[in-house]
């Protein structure tokens, strides 16, 4: 840290004069200088305080909200990390799950732990949506033996420390700034998490010994303005409809670079509208449920020429199966010390349900399950990055991963509604 010199400059030379007038000038000058340097010193203190890593205050820039520095390190902390990441089955793997307190991250972490894999979570618990829901997921995982380290994927020293403590065989990278519409309000958060965060993670992984195999979450949004259906991994993805989609597409290109240069084994998963218990409150099925129960009007978007908006809704359990299959079929990275030793695996898979459902049908199912009539308002699809439809071609995932979704929307929503009513009943939140 540099030293701050808050001493005033050398005063100018004055000929000694006893007159009150000169004394007043010198007094006023001294007071002015004292006031000036007091403000300077105070300003430096404030700057130091707000920029200090030990400060509990968050930067005012919302794109940097997740840069909070958390307490980590020490023997007790390392013991918890090792215990959580300990493999307990004969052929198990050791996985670092980023975004572990998120919707998909929680379910994947729990599934890995159940089958005996070593699992360590990482999450910054930002406030894009209600952090209390993330804390409840954290508690759920802790009861099953999964420790979530509180920190940011942009924190290189923290990531390096985790790889120093545990020789992870795999990384399941699910941490990201989600949501299409929020990108119009806070674009910086998407660059910070989805691009800078991914690069930071890959930088640490390329230098790890051994290098882990990495599976990361891309998004069906990369298909953007593509009009071919169903969407295939071979289709063009160079016309993103939103900044969120653009950052996810950038992630796929960045992954290609690290695979090509550093020999990292990388698998990208394009999720299609994931839903289910413990889901994200910013998703339509979630806030439709909330607003229907509250008697509020819900917006039903329609596209050009009154065409219905449809989504390829995919139940969380089906997504988890695809994630685990991707980890199990991931080949080892081929780099050492950041240098590639040979060709490394690079894959991208669609994980969807193959059955697009109009949003109007989604609302009808919710009405039946909630036993409440929805107040619908037909609204033109806004120009905020949302696309009119999504439809996954999953033939590649079927062939390479054995991926086969089995949950229809009616069944999946029934499970979600049951969880929702239990979790929010009477203002009390169930433990799961």
UniProtKB/TrEMBL annotation:
Residue stretches in coiled coil: none
GO-annotated cellular components: Golgi cisterna membrane
Transmembrane segments: 31-50
Listed GO MF terms: UDP-glucuronate 4-epimerase activity
Localization of this protein: Golgi apparatus, Golgi stack membrane
Subunit structure: Homodimer.
Protein name: UDP-glucuronate 4-epimerase
């Amino acid at each position: 840290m540099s030293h701050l010199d808050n001493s005033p400059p050398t005063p100018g030379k004055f000929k000694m004069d006893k007159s009150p007038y000169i004394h007043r000038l010198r007094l006023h000058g001294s007071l002015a200088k004292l006031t000036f340097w007091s403000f300077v010193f105070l300003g430096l203190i404030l700057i130091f305080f707000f920029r200090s890593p030990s400060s509990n205050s968050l930067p005012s820039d919302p794109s940097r909200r997740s840069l909070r520095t958390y307490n980590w390190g020490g023997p007790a902390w390392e013991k918890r990390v090792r215990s959580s990441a300990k493999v307990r089955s004969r052929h198990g793997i050791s996985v670092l799950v980023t975004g572990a307190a998120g919707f998909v991250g929680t379910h994947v972490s729990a599934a890995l732990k159940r089958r005996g894999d070593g699992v360590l979570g990482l999450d910054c618990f930002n406030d894009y949506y209600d952090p209390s829901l993330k804390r409840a997921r954290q508690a759920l995982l802790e009861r099953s033996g999964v420790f979530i380290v509180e920190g940011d994927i942009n924190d290189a020293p923290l990531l390096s420390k985790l790889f120093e403590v545990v020789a992870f065989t795999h990384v399941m990278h699910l941490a990201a700034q989600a949501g299409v519409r929020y990108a119009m309000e806070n674009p910086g958060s998407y660059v910070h998490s989805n691009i800078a965060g991914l690069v930071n993670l890959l930088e640490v992984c390329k230098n790890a010994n051994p290098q882990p195999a990495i599976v990361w979450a891309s998004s069906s949004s990369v298909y953007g303005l593509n009009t071919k259906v169903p969407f295939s991994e071979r289709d063009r993805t160079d016309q993103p409809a939103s900044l969120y989609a653009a950052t996810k597409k950038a992630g796929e290109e960045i992954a290609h670079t690290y695979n090509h240069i550093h020999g990292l084994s990388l698998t990208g998963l394009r999720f299609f509208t994931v839903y289910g218990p413990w889901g994200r409150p910013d998703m339509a099925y979630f806030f439709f449920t909330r607003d229907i129960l509250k008697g509020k009007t819900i917006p039903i978007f329609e596209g050009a020429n009154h065409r219905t908006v449809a989504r390829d809704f995919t139940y969380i359990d089906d997504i988890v199966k695809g994630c685990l299959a991707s980890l199990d079929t991931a080949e080892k990275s081929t780099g050492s010390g950041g240098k590639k030793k040979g060709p490394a695996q690079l894959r991208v898979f669609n994980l969807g349900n193959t059955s697009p459902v109009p949003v109007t049908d989604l609302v009808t199912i919710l009405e039946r399950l909630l036993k409440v009539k929805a107040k619908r308002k037909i609204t033109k699809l806004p120009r905020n990055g949302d696309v009119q439809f999504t439809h996954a071609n999953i033939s590649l995932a079927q062939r390479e991963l054995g991926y086969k979704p089995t949950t229809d929307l009616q069944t999946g929503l029934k499970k979600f509604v049951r969880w929702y009513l239990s979790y929010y009943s009477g203002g009390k939140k169930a433990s799961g």
